[in-house]
Amino acid sequence: MSVLARPAPPGSVAPLQRPGGAGRRRSVVVVAAGVAVTLATAFASLLLGRLGLTPGEVLDVLGGGGTRIQRWAVLTDRLPRVAVGALAGAAFAVAGALLQSVTRNPLGSPDVIGLGSGAAAGAAAAGLVWPGIVPVPVGALLGAAVAVAAVWLGTGRGFAAPLRMVVAGIAVGAMALALVELALARASREDALDIATWIHGSLAARGREDVAVVGLALLVLLPLALALSRPLAAVEMGDDVATGLGVPPGRTRGLGVVLAVALTGSAVSVAGPVAFVALTAPQIARRLTGATGPGVGAAAAVGAAVLVLADQVAQRAVPGTPYPVGVVTGALGGVYLALLLVREWRRSAA
Amino acid sequence: MAATAALGGPVGAGAPAGPRRAPRHGRPAALALGLLAALALLVLAVGLSVAVGSRSVPLGAVWSALVAPDGSFVSTVVASRVPRTVLGLLVGAALAVAGALVQGLTRNPLGDPGLLGVNAGAATSVVLVSALVGTTAGRTPWAAVPGALAAAVVVHLVGAGGRSVSPVRLVLAGAAVSAVLGAVIQSLVLARPETFDTYRFWVLGSLAGRTPEVVAQVAPFIAVGLVLALVLARPLDALALGDEAATALGLRPGLTRVVGLLAATLLVAGAVAAAGPIAFVGLAVPHVVRGLTGPDHRWLVPYCAVLGPVLLLGSDVVGRVVARPGEIVVGAVTAFVGAPFLVAAVRRGRVAG
């Protein structure tokens, strides 16, 4: 338990990285690499599909040319999907980085503690049960907020008890998914079929308005998260240290939770509760950069790359049977979670 | 040390087999009366399950339609709901008793086949067998057995790691294993939509649309499991005192564990093969029952066998009512009702990892 409360990977035992140091440079490299992988995968995804296109044709379409069917395939079908994937992946990952930092534990991710399911329940309620009262993204936001409040109250000790928090999250997640089922049962047949794939996290049939929702949310929330990055890194070292550095620990943690809720809500409202991107992407980013603190920028870049890559795997792994992306991230993320647990008990046994 | 912490919980808390029990619980007359009351609840739940639906039948008419079917519309409606109700009885008893067994055997107050990944394992092997061999083979409980056992072993390896067994870590390992297996099930089901058309609701845990043949197939599994559980009640009480004390009392702890695991596997395999992975029944029912009976398994097991179906049939009725004209699968309702018990168990602090 004491080991679990210290998530810092072996490479990050060094004290607070000074800006401009080696850690900073590595972070920049990681961000650049993440963006490059995302862009390359995105470009490849524009080429592939039932209507195969050459790179030249795609560039032509992007520049405003091309036939009508080519324009439809690229601009209406493939581009929104990959854009939603990249943006939602970044949003999930930043939410994960913030919450993992607040809870000082890799298990304190939105998808492990039921935030994603809560957002899904909120979105389903807003979209299907009481349509027209609040927009779906707002519903997702409210759902995520209720879920995080329920977990916080459920543990009885706030976020200070990581394992309790996770178990409370499992319970909250189960209840939230039951509410999604309720919404599904009350929905019309077509709506229900739509939701049935979305419930596992899917990027199929995304439109420009979805890009706008998650894009706007990131535009506002990502700079805030980046600004909160350094105070959170100070709080990670302990409340006394943070106070000594002039950072109010309680307010910083509260802001971190609020931002994580907002990011998760916006991502879930467009992509569904895609499992485990928020758990894995910030951890991968931390290991790559070797830096302390939440590492918001690196997490965003890695999250975008992870979700876009996973969606390509889900679409193309079995020819003719496109899977929702949540199936791929669920399988990989579940294995990662198991490995995390095994490594943790090995360490406590050693 | 974690094992001792878990022992401090309701499972191990002073369960001397024999007449000297804690004064608050355990007067046999009161407990027998309570069991009668529970049976009355069960009769009510069965009546509601047969009466309520998209076309409701008055409870009085249910009785006459069951006793003397006259071929009228009402009696046809009632007859069509009988397999579902019988299945609810079997599955509810199986899951609740399996939960009590697992909690007693592992001294883990969070022992629930759903939480520990056993349901997901059973479901995965049902879907795998259906995909590879055929749906008739996939529908038999035998198809669920290997997956249930394998998942239980993997969850224990991941969560316990051979050293101290912490209940919360086991739940976490169960969540990880269930996530992976859920993805496996999803990909198999999506790859062959025509084979798995009927599985879409089964995957979520549902009593709807089961034929009498399915019920007849799983009934022997669950019946044998229930009998074994009743036989095990005394040895389980002794086991709660610790292995040495149990041996001193003339019992073989190893044998008790093996038979207990076998019984739990039969119960879960039967339940999952028929109704899909339904979580939280095995957690919530024994927790409530322990508050009534105390830790004595000779009362715990029968109470669970009666109140498990009450919860399951009640949830099924609620699922049919809240979303009219549609219905919610029973697994969603039990999750909603049962999940708070998980939080409550964790908050009491016995299971801190």
How would you characterize the overall build of this protein?
The complex is a heterodimer of chains A (350) and B (353). The longest helix of chain A is centred in the first third of the chain and has 36 residues. With 350 residues, chain A is mainly alpha-helical. In chain A, α5 crosses α10 and α8 packs antiparallel against α10. Chain B has one domain: ABC transporter involved in vitamin B12 uptake, BtuC (Orthogonal Bundle), CATH 1.10.3470. Chain B contains 16 helices and no strands. In chain B, 55% of the residues are buried. Chains A and B meet through α6 and α13 of A and α7, α8 and α16 of B.
Highlighted features:
A: mainly alpha, ABC transporter involved in vitamin B12 uptake, BtuC, B: 353 residues, mainly alpha
What are the SSEs and their pairings?
The complex is a heterodimer of chains A (350) and B (353).
Chain A: H1 22-47, H2 55-62, H3 68-103, H4 115-129, H5 136-155, H6 162-186, H7 189-198, H8 208-236, H9 239-244, H10 249-271, H11 277-289, H12 296-316, H13 325-349
Helix pairs in contact in A: 1-3, 1-12, 2-3, 3-8, 3-10, 3-11, 3-12, 4-5, 4-6, 4-10, 5-6, 5-10, 8-10, 11-12, 12-13
Chain B: H1 2-7, H2 28-51, H3 59-67, H4 73-106, H5 118-132, H6 135-138, H7 145-160, H8 167-191, H9 199-202, H10 212-231, H11 233-239, H12 243-248, H13 253-275, H14 281-293, H15 297-322, H16 330-347
Helix pairs in contact in B: 2-4, 2-15, 3-4, 4-10, 4-13, 4-14, 4-15, 5-7, 5-8, 5-13, 7-8, 10-13, 11-15, 14-15, 14-16, 15-16
